């Protein structure tokens, strides 16, 4: 009997460990240049990985040069893997909407074109519902003084961007673009979302 109980406890512990090991979800956001936005989400507690890439277009395995033409229909996006026990999808949406201008159609700052559009690619019906609810609330309260134009659509095939786009700010933080464009976004993140940041 003792042996059966020990085996039962071992199986339960293993199942619990496996369940906890698989407790990650994906979020995919497009909010302008992925160099600028990757560094923001990498700093959040509960985010286990961030990959820059392309989504929402018609071409299979597009290159950066092809996406930059605007002809493929892809947006520059981040595929975020996160632990919902540590950070919620709602929290990620809050960071998303407060870290770019969701009222400019196909433009973020100096970057213009459909590849820079504001977009949420949802992976579950719950993500769709939360994103739509949040967007509706922003428009109802006129939070930005202008209408939010963020597109909310079902996830499409995601294509990982070239290696030199990955972890861009962390590798190139001293470059003028990083200091002038990305660093102010990081500074804002540290002020607004201090409690959500990794130590």
Summed up, what is this model?
Belongs to the MsrA Met sulfoxide reductase family. This protein has helices spanning 2-21, 34-42, 64-68, 89-98, 125-140, 168-172, 176-192, and strands at residues 25-31, 47-55, 75-82, 107-108, 111-112, 118-122, 151-154, 158-160.
Distance between the termini: 47 Å
What composes the largest sheet? Answer: 6 strands, mixed
Secondary-structure-based class equals alpha+beta
| CA-based gyration radius | 19 Å
Got a strand count? 8
The helical percent reads 40-55%
How are the strands ordered across the major sheet? 7-6-1-3-2-8
The secondary-structure element order is HEHEHEHEEEHEEHH
Shape: globular
Report the β-strand fraction as a percent range: 15-25%
Uncertain residue ranges: none
Q: Overall mean pLDDT score?
A: 90
SS element count, helices? 7
Describe this structure in words.
This protein is an alpha+beta fold. The protein is built from 7 helices and 8 strands; from the N terminus they run H-E-H-E-H-E-H-E-E-E-H-E-E-H-H. It has helices at residues 2-21, 34-42, 64-68, 89-98, 125-140, 168-172, 176-192; strands at 25-31, 47-55, 75-82, 107-108, 111-112, 118-122, 151-154, 158-160. The strands form 2 sheets. It has a 6-stranded mixed sheet with strand order 7-6-1-3-2-8, with helices on one face. Strands 4-5 form a two-stranded antiparallel ribbon. Helix 5 links the parallel strand 6 and strand 7. Helix 2 (34-42) packs across helix 7 (176-192). It is globular, with a radius of gyration of 19 Å. The model has no long low-confidence stretch (mean pLDDT 90).
